[in-house]
Design goal:
By secondary structure, the protein is α+β, with helices and mostly antiparallel strands. About 40% of the residues lie in helices and about 30% in strands. Strands 2, 3, 4, 5 and 6 form a 5-stranded antiparallel β-sheet that branches. Strands 7-8-1-9 form a 4-stranded antiparallel β-sheet, with helices on one face. Strand 7 and strand 8 (about 130-135) form a beta hairpin. Helix 1 (about 15-30) crosses helix 2 (about 55-70). The two termini are about 10 Å apart.
Length: about 160
């Protein structure tokens, strides 16, 4: 019998990110507490730039954006938001969406699988994803449950289970 396998990836649907951005822009334009404070959020390439007249307001803009991401099914582990910094008369936060699993995170995940998963499991790093193989599908499902229970720095999806 051939080995069963699945891939561990960290991907975010760009359309869902765009939808969350659009919803956040609408809410910021409509909310009374964001009137006359220069609050805005916009995408510039791969980054999102959040602006407001005070540090508290720009953090509130970030909070609105995070809530819209959650509603669209995007994990906040995928959002990499910096600290507020002054830029002229306004405060800004630059944020971006993390795609792929870094080599350090892949090594951590691979070590967890090696140490704690059933012994029949083999994992190998392939670029920005991991391939996990075993003869037993039950062992693969136990490995998925193990990784879901861990508190990792990246949002993981499990795809191509066959």
């Amino acid at each position: 019998m051939a080995d069963s396998s699945f891939d561990i990836v960290s991907k975010v649907d760009p359309m869902e990110t765009q939808n969350a951005l659009n919803q956040a822009q609408k809410e910021i334009a409509q909310r009374y507490d964001f009137k006359n404070v220069g609050a805005s959020i916009e995408a510039s390439g791969e980054k999102f730039v959040l602006k407001a007249s005070s540090e508290e307001r720009v953090k509130a803009v970030l909070d609105v954006f995070e809530s819209k991401l959650i509603k669209r099914g995007i994990s906040l582990r995928s959002l990499d938001a910096g600290e507020p910094f002054a830029s002229g008369k306004e405060y800004r936060i630059e944020a971006s969406i993390k795609e792929g699993i870094s080599s350090d995170d892949a090594k951590k995940i691979s070590k967890i699988i090696r140490d704690e998963a059933p012994k029949s499991i083999k994992s190998q790093i392939q670029g920005d994803e991991l391939r996990v193989q075993s003869k037993s599908r039950d062992d693969l499902q136990a490995t998925i449950a193990l990784l879901k229970g861990k508190d990792l720095d990246v949002a993981l999806q499990f795809v191509n289970f066959r």
